[in-house]
Amino acid sequence: MDNPVEKSITNVDRTVVSGQQEVSDAPDPVKRSDSDKERSYTLGDFFTIKRGVETGGNDFFILTPMEVFGYDLPEEFLRPILPGPSALAEQEIVADSRGDPILDNKRFLLNSPLQEWEIKQDYPSLWRYLEMGMERCVHERYSCRHRNPWYSQERRPPAPYLCAYMGKSNKGDDAPFRFILNHSKAIAQNVYLMMYPRPALARRLRDDYSLRVTLWGTLNDMGNDEVLHRSRIYGDASGKLEPMELASVPADRIVALMPDLVPDSVAQMNLFGQQPDQEI
C-alpha cells in the first residue's frame, strides 16, 4: 500500500524543499576534505533561517474557513497559514492534492497587492471587509503603516522545517522547542522560525522522504539540549529565539547523519581554493 504522506508530497511544489527555487539535479560540487571534516558546523551552514510573517494584525488578517465563508472573501487573495504553536496538534503537516495543509483548524492569510480603487471596483466583498479593518484602525498599526497597500503581506515561500517555542511544560519533561515537518504550501506566523535548506541539503532531501523524516527527528533531538542551551544564553525571558541565535546552534548531529554533505559556503570556498578558516 502506498504511503499516504509520501503520495501527498508528490503534489507539493518542489519549492517547499528549498524555499526559493526548484533544486538542480546536479550532484554536490565537492566532497568533504579532511580539513572540512575538522570544522565545526552550525544550523546556519545548512539552513537559511527567517522569522515567520509579521501580518500587522493576526486578528484581522488570519481567518478561519468559517470567517472566509461568512465574509465571502475571494479565494485568490487567501493563502494557507499555520495556526499558532499552541493550537497546532500536528507535528508533521500533510498536504492535500492542492498543497493545502490537512488540519482540523485551518487558517488563511489575507493578502492582496491590488490598490484600494481596484478592490472597490472589482471585489466588493473584499472591499467591505477592508472597510471594517479601517474602522478598527488596523491600517494605522505599525506594520500596516509601512506597507503599500497596507493590507499586503510579506512574500514568503513555505518552509519544509519550522521551529516553534512551546513554552515551559508544567511537567518539566517536554522540550520547550519543537521542530515541525511541513509538506504543505502553508507559511507561518512570526511566532515560528522558518528553516529553508540551503541548496546542497535541498538537493539531498528533495526525493528522499525517509531522509527528510530522519532529519526532522534529528532536529527535535537537538531541541532537547543544544537549542534549549542556546535559548538560555541568548534568548529573552520567555525563552524565544531569534533566527541568528538558532543559526548558531551546533549541527554535529546533522554532520553525523550526512557525513559526506558539504555545506554550500564550504563548497564555494573550496572551489576558489580557500581553506574553510580563510576569509573571502
Description:
The protein is α+β, with helices and mostly antiparallel strands. It has 2 domains: about 5-50 and about 160-270, Adenine-n6-DNA-methyltransferase TaqI, Chain A, domain 2; about 60-145, no CATH class. About 35% of the residues lie in helices and about 10% in strands. It is built from 15 helices and 8 strands. The strands form 2 sheets. The chain has a 5-stranded mixed beta sheet. α7 crosses α8 (about 125-135). The model is unreliable at about 5-10, about 20-30, about 235 and about 275-280 (pLDDT under 50).
Structural class: alpha+beta
Could you estimate the helical fraction of the residues in percent?
25-40%
The outline comes out as elongated
Rg over C-alpha atoms, rounded to the nearest angstrom: 21 Å
Cross-sheet strand order for the largest sheet: 1-8-6-7-4
Indicate the CATH architecture of the largest domain.
Answer: Alpha-Beta Complex
The total beta strand count reads 8
Low-confidence stretches: 4-12, 21-30, 233-237, 274-280
Order of helices and strands: HHHHEHEHEEEHHHEEEHHHHHH
Average of per-residue pLDDT values: 82
Supply the number of helical segments: 15
Number of domains as seen in the coordinates: 2
Strand content: 5-15%
CATH class placement of the largest domain: Alpha Beta
